[in-house]
Amino acid sequence: MNKNINFEQLATELDELKRQTLAQVGASDAAYIRKVIVWQRSLEWGGRVLLMLGFLHPVWWIIGVLSLASAKILDNMEIGHNVLHGQYDWMNDPHINSRQFDWDIACDGKSWQRIHNYEHHTYTNVIGKDRDFGYGLLRLSNDFSWRLKNLWQFITYIYLSVLFQWGVSYHELAAERVFMGKKKQGRASNVDANELKRRFFSKGGKQLVKDYVVFPLLAGPLFLWVLVGNLIANLLRNLWTSTIIFCGHFTSDVHTFSQAECENETQGQWYYRQALGSSNIKGGKLFHILTGHLSFQIEHHLFPDLPSSRYQQVAPQVQAILSRHGIAYHTGPFLRQYSQVVKRIVRYSFP
Amino acid sequence: MNVLSRLNNITAKTLFHTDSIGSYFEPIMQRIKPAWRTHWFRAKVLGHELLGADVLQLDLSPEKAWPQAIAGQHVLLTVEINGRLMTRPFSISSAPEQSCSQYPKKHVIRLTIKTHVEGAFTAKLLANIATGGYVNLSAPQGEFILSESVLTQPSTPLWFVAAGSGITPFMAMLNQLALLPHQPQHPIQLVYFAKAGEHLYVDELMALQQQLSQFQVQLLIRKNGHNLTDALSTCNVQSQVLICGPSQFKDDVDQQLDVMKHPKAQRQAEFFQAPTFAQTAAGEQHVHLSQRGQTSQLVLAAKDNLLSGLEQQGISANFGCRIGVCHQCQCVKKSGVVRNLRTGELSQPGEQLIQLCISQAVTPLELEL
Lengths: 351, 369
Prior knowledge:
Helices cover about 60% and strands about 0% of the residues of chain A. Chain A is an all-alpha fold. Chain B has 4 domains: about 1-30, no CATH class; about 40-135, Beta Barrel (Elongation Factor Tu (Ef-tu), domain 3); about 150-270, Rossmann fold; about 285-369, Beta-grasp domain (Ubiquitin-like (UB roll)).
């Protein structure tokens, strides 16, 4: 950790910013998330209907696929990710909260809360603790020793992106070595392996039945149009979410940390690690919504409970605070950030 | 669970990822019908009136599906206050069949609400409701009602003993009695304590006294030397006594009736409590727990977080990180105050979501896992 930074002062300033912003959260934030949900529902059902109008003109089918894909993206990113974080729990809404909400993705929401909310957000980029750093599949820094399989890790990355929802779903089971491998020493599991399996198959199965059996059957003779449409919508969603998420932690300047560095970490040091372990993407308002405001990855990692509707507002203030303390704020346009990710995956394919 | 709701549940879980089809469409429905919610009934705000510096009367028109209340029952009123749904119980102060001259064609219920300047709910209520707007109601609930057996026994004298805003359920009962097709034969006594100038519905009570020949009102003020001993002096052992007011008042009435050898079986009480922060002598707190339809009463060490406390009692709750980050141990607190161990803040007393691992019981709690 950098010794020249006044971590105490940093913590005070960021805590104060969080406090002030949370105090403003209210009716407009509740209205915002409900509006996004209405959009999501409209795009989903608009899309599902249009998929069946493909026989009139294929362009309807194409719009339907895009519409359904956008609905899935909104559901997973702006709604699911943020609601499951508990960002909107203060609303006391019986459905829009981290306890009740589940999303349109193969991953069981509860499993994701354990791995993502806790492991990833608490131990962000701590090698050996945060399995999101490379997902146990990719070598993204010299912290890991090189192995032969890293040579073709770019292809592994493509596979992961294409099947991203299944990767997310399998994430906890892989960590717990449910199907194969030796159980990791010192890993305290809260959920029994059989329960993990049951939930994995139950949620995944429901998703398969929904998109590849029920809706195609409802379309009758247009069975294949709908099935293929759903498949492509899921694929587009997988590629989008994977791409955005990779840009959040795997750009060139993102730091990694050792477990020793993070022992007895203070709040200020925690903020420092979160800031340096994340990177933002510049873009317009719609782009930010479609990324679930993960384009404000730094702000999200500093304040994971702050409603996503506030990230755009706090970003300039966060940037100002970090720059006053001489801490880098990694951001850039999408293509620049993504090309850095690709370079990083390729670079660490080799020893 | 009947077949239909099972089907709804399975369809919703598979196609919509929600617990019911209604909850999937709720945000869309709300665009058409404001405040439409699957868990609650809707009621239109017809108007409000200030009955004094700190008493607010709300006139509400519940939707058709709302089950009719029995006089004396209360409802949970839910209002969106600055984006947050907040719920509090209030007695209904109008009789079920009572018509309202201002809104002749509507089914109206009246809630009489004591407001507190510092109250998180009552202080902000007026600013967050609008005439013509909507709020949510639970089904009417509560056992504080005139039972059939009492009503069919004309020789049983009825004693209504109220303090402050405890008058509300009695207004419902008295109006109901006045609406009966035949004059009730019961002698009815209302003993009503309040601060000077703060008795509510005095005109209405006087009018009721005209309508009900057997009904007598005693408007009493403690500061003026009125006391329970005198007020209850003619209450005999056959009387059915209903008490409503603060818990201390209820204790005082009980004590006086005990002295008079009035049988406990012939008393009903509804009382409200300012949240007391006292624990039991051993530093413990009572928790009423409902889990998968089963309920249990527990006593937990108040210094522990609720998750550890429950585990020590052999209750297994979902949990994850145990430091308030992952939201796995989220559960519904129906009532009571908890302290957030991360921020040190005290919660609201009403229904809300809490994380067990970072919550500590401050008052007796009602939890739903």
